[in-house]
Amino acid sequence: MDIYRNSTHVIDNFFNDIQPIIDLGNSLEYHNNEAWPGLRTDNLLQINNTLAVEFAKFFAKNIADKVFYGLSKFEIDVRFHKNDLYDVDEANSGWIHNDDIDFAGLVYLNKEEPNMSTGTSIFDKTLFEDFEAEDYQSRKELNLKKNVINKEIMSKYNNSGFALVYDPVLKKEKKISKKIDNKSLFIFHKNLKKNSFVKITNPINQKTVIAEVISNKVRFSDFYNSVITSRIADELSLNLNEPYIDLVLISQNSTFIAKKAKTYNEEKKVAEKAPVDGIQIDNLGDVNQLKNEAKKDNIFSYSIKIADFYYKDSAMNMSNRIIDETNIANPVIKTISNTKYRVLLGPFNDIKKLEDSFNEIKSLDFENIEILKDV
User: Fold this and answer.
1) Residue 203, preceding peptide bond in cis (omega within 30° of 0)
2) Helices 19-27 and 50-62 meet at what angle, rounded to 10?
3) Handedness of CA 143, 147, 148, 149 (dihedral sign)
4) pLDDT digits over 336-354, tens only?
5) Strand locations in 14-61, DSSP E?
6) Taking the alpha carbons of 268, 272, 273, 274 in that order, is the dihedral positive or negative?
7) Which residues lie below 8 Å from residue 351, measured CB to CB, with a gap of 6+?
8) Contacts with 181 (C-beta within 8 Å, 6 or more apart), sequence order
9) What H or E segment, with its residue span, contains residue 238?
10) CA distance 53 to 43
11) Angstrom distance (rounded) from CA 205 to CA 19
12) Residue 346 in contact with residue 357, Cβ under 8 Å?
């Protein structure tokens, strides 16, 4: 093996016909693991599948004949792998790892890949120092649950959906596990870190407020993307029968305009604590608007966004999975562009039907499902 040490081999068309290999891969069982993102099969040489074992032997012979010429005695681990697609775009840019073995490789089975920025990059460590300590917790969350909790990636977090406006009755009815001060600019959120700040927007009138996440341990229905106070709902002039919001995590260099009639003490505290470059107060006192201003009647029409996919085939596979594993019979694939295909449920004209379908789809453990208002 010494003659091949530190060498890199790139071979086009490693297999003459990949379709039977793709069919074999699609017929096998996959599972996840905290050590890697995506899904993998077990070692093909160790599973109870004659065709898979024969293919693994054929593959090993090809390595000896086409890559490492003269290689005769070696142990090999052969697996199929499928990458996950994450709701947070930055998590789809790839992953870096080190194989502590004599040689490693992979064969891409993608047909007619149009994006030439995909593939594998080979890195050579030039320093003797150890790498920084690994973030095992965020890696486990990503690999096992598809939860993106890395702080740099999470700075891009956003979600559109319905908020649960707090009422003491909710606590009595055990629909929420903790009280919140209804006069505050605080929210409960299930995924964002405690003490992080978010910008909440009412997309109907574009009013915004800054709020602080004071807990991510509170239990409430997954249908809601957050629990907000009545004060926040009032500031945004939300329709309490349809409290639809856009929620964005504030990054270190965000700047936004807060349109207010007066600055409250709580807002001053938020402005002092918020990790942003600046908060501009616009039209302060110019317009004397009633907080409970009249809201236009809108037709209730919303869809559930499952995910966006680069390939239409991937979107179709997701649609088929929904049909096979839930009671939902009619998912929709919407073409956003030539490289973006969106899987949707709906539209729904009734919030109860919307919530029932949302809860049904949550059984598949998708992350960051959004509710989109149809326009």
Assistant:
1) no
2) 140
3) negative
4) 988 889 999 999 988 889 9
5) 31-33, 36-40
6) positive
7) 162, 242, 300
8) 229
9) none
10) 9
11) 52
12) yes
CB 372 within 8 A of CB 345: no
CA distances 5 to 1, 12, 102, Å, are 6, 21, 8
User: Contact at 8 Å (CB) between 155 and 91?
Assistant: no
> Which residue has tokens 């995506």?
38
Distance linking the first and last C-alpha atoms of the chain: 62
Instruction: For 153, list phi and psi in degrees, rounded to 5.
Output: -70, -40
How wide is the angle at C-alpha 324 spanned by C-alphas 191 and 38, nearest 5°?
45
Q: What is the DSSP letter of 234?
A: H
Tens-place pLDDT, residues 151-193: 554 556 789 999 999 999 999 999 999 999 999 999 999 988 8
CA atoms within 13 A on the CB side of 73: 0
pLDDT score, position 36 = 83
**pTM over 0.70, yes/no:** no
Gap between the Cα atoms of 170 and 176, Å rounded: 6
Neighbours of 94 (CB within 10 A): 12
Whose structure tokens read 């006069």?
A: 183
Is there a contact between 220 and 176 (Cβ–Cβ < 8 Å)? yes
Contact assessment for residue 78 and residue 56, using Cβ atoms and an 8 Å cutoff: yes
